[in-house]
Amino acid sequence: MLNLALLETPGFWWTVLNGLVTTAALTVLSMAFGFLLGGALATLHQYAGAPALRIAAKTYIFVFRGVPLLILLFLVYYGMPRIAWLRGGLFWDLVLSSPFRTAVFVLSINNAAYLAEMIRGGLKMVPRGLLEAAVALGMTRKRAFFRVHAPLALRSILGNLGNETVAVIKASAITSVITVHDLMGGPTILGKIHLDPLTPLLVVGLIYILIVQIIDHLITRLQAHLAVEGIGYVRNL
Amino acid sequence: MLEIVAPYLSLWLKGAALTFGLAAVSFPICVAIGLVVAFASFSPARAISTLASVFINVFRGLPEIIVIFIVFYGSTIVLAAIGKSVGYEAGGVNPAIAATFAMSFQSGSYAAVIFKDWISTLPRGYVEAGLAIGMTRFQVRRRIVVPLVLQSATPALGNLFMVMLKISALASLIGVQELSRSTNIVAGATREPLFCYMIAAAMYLAISAVSSLIQHGFEAAIERSR
User: Fold this and answer.
1) C-alpha to C-alpha distance for A172 and B65, rounded to whole angstroms
2) CA A205/CA B81 separation, integer angstroms
3) C-alpha count within 13 angstroms, C-beta hemisphere, residue B43
4) Beta bridge partners of A231
5) Which chain A residues are closer than 8 Å to B69 by Cβ?
6) pLDDT tens for residues B64-106?
7) Looking at chain B, which residue has its C-alpha nearest residue A167?
8) How close, in Å, is residue A171 to chain B by CA atoms?
9) pTM here?
């Protein structure tokens, strides 16, 4: 039934380790880019003066939350290279020329839509009085934002950010369909070569479960560490 | 470009219907699993509550794509082994059924987390009142806890349904001919992948929009019934 010989194949664990690094890189990069883009979207959605900008931000969030990641990956990886004038341009060199960078791009623009909603919620949660107090103390608006508003908002969405990181780790497994050799992609290809599709799935499945447990644990510790009396953080669902 | 893809429209619409169908069939199963697991996690028997939290943590940690593959390959292998022992040649597992199972179980764990949170916010008095007038524990759950929890969890369950619609795209990878798979076919046949995937994206958005309208209808009805 289960063919455990695969686990002793030379190179199997090496592939797993390589995949782990790729998954970590995908997650960290797309969280970072997603956070920047998501922050910008949240600010536009919440504070932009021009209605057109607000509508644009809302539309972005609606579209990228509604379309499955798989379709987005196919659209960018198989569809975009068909646009003639993109070939040889900057976008081609930076993104489309490698499956890994395409995956980072797609995960980031997808992730940004979810992060935008979270960041918006976090920014709204900070009591007005605190911000007014900061301004009353003579802080400039910019300084009040970076010293008071942003840190408090960030603290209140910490649990959600943890959940989002978990979601991105899990979603990054889908990038294996555009030949990214991440934790899912590398070992399963090896499994197919050895006519044993199930064993690598079970092995990497266990590793994913372990990683998610570790992240959950770390976030809970961090939340407890950063908890401030009187200002609750959002309980993660 | 529209005339190139027009002949494939019926294939596409069938795919879209199957996408909606996969989510719609898995959803009630996932709610049932979620309720059972949520109640199990409050069980005084240590073994049962541990089992419930293991279930939740396993499916929370596993990527959806892996669950779908494991259920598909795993059930094929297991069925073949069972078939062999009784001398019956088992054919392959129907991928649509495997995908339905995989989605139900995984989303069941998400639903369990939602229900757990809402059950823990229910005032103790409700359950105690039920017990005081002579209801059994099961009756209390069926007549008091479940209706209240389902009502308060409607928005979260609506979001879960949207998530399931998107997860169902992964069923295409094991050969279920839903919206993503039919798009792959059309994209291959017409050699217009960009246009085809954009149409697919629009169809997913349309399905989500319709579902969210239904969800709003539900929420409004619940609001009125209060």
Assistant:
1) 10
2) 23
3) 17
4) A228
5) 188, 197, 201
6) 999 999 999 999 888 888 888 887 776 778 999 999 999 999 9
7) B63
8) 7
9) 0.89
